[in-house]
């Protein structure tokens, strides 16, 4: 994995929620309001495709089939992105981990390098997620923003990601947010709960 300094141990929050729940939007706002760095696992994977990385074919096949990219590939990209960036000591990782094996691999490969804080879980109704993806698809240019792949992503989310959410809830490491509200209300809720967490941490 990527080299790191034993003297630097950045803080990390995972941001989880279904496709279209608003993870990316909320992370962008948090990065402005709190000066955290937003790392989108999905964007890092898409960038790896356009840059013709060694994992291009593997990533492309996974994205187009709505399945999860192998853990070591995504973690390697996140690892490099965290330790290349010296502008902040707190990182928001959007869209990872997506299954239990992702989480176990992260713990094994990254727990000693970072200070894990908690999971921010944006819960959103299926109807709203579909509407948001349909709207986003008009301008996003993303290959996975279509209903056929979206259905596969929903199945993956229900079968795999939900287990991660339950795990962190049991550890009292879950900040749960109602994502059906407006963007500004959701952001205000996250900031309020984060402040409480930071005060008591």
TrEMBL record:
GO MF terms here are: ATP binding; nucleobase-containing compound kinase activity; phosphotransferase activity, phosphate group as acceptor
Work out whether the entry's keyword set contains Hydrolase. no
What PROSITE patterns does the annotation carry?
ADENYLATE_KINASE (PS00113)
**Swiss-Prot/TrEMBL keywords:** ATP-binding, Cytoplasm, Nucleotide-binding, Nucleus, Pyrimidine biosynthesis
Swiss-Prot/TrEMBL GO biological process terms: 'de novo' pyrimidine nucleobase biosynthetic process; nucleoside monophosphate metabolic process; pyrimidine nucleotide biosynthetic process
Pfam families given in the database record: ADK
- Name listed for the protein in its UniProt record: Adenylate kinase
- Species of the source: Paramecium primaurelia
């Amino acid at each position: 994995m990527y080299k790191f300094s034993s003297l630097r141990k950045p803080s990390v929050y995972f941001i989880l929620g279904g496709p279209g729940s608003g993870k990316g939007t909320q992370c962008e706002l948090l990065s402005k309001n709190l000066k955290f760095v937003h790392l989108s696992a999905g964007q890092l994977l898409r960038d790896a495709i356009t840059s013709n990385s060694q994992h291009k074919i593997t990533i492309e096949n996974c994205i187009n089939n709505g399945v999860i990219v192998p853990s070591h590939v995504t973690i390697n990209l996140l690892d490099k992105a965290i330790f290349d960036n010296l502008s902040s000591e707190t990182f928001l990782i959007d869209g990872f981990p997506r299954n239990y094996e992702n989480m176990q691999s992260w713990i094994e490969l990254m727990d000693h390098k970072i200070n894990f804080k908690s999971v921010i879980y944006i819960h959103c109704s299926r109807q709203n997620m579909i509407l948001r993806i349909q709207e986003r698809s008009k301008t996003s240019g993303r290959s996975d923003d279509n209903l056929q792949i979206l259905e596969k992503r929903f199945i993956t989310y229900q079968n795999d990601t939900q287990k991660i959410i339950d795990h962190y809830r049991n550890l009292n490491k879950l900040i749960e947010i109602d994502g059906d509200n407006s963007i500004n209300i959701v952001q205000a809720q996250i900031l309020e709960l984060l402040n409480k967490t930071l005060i008591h941490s």
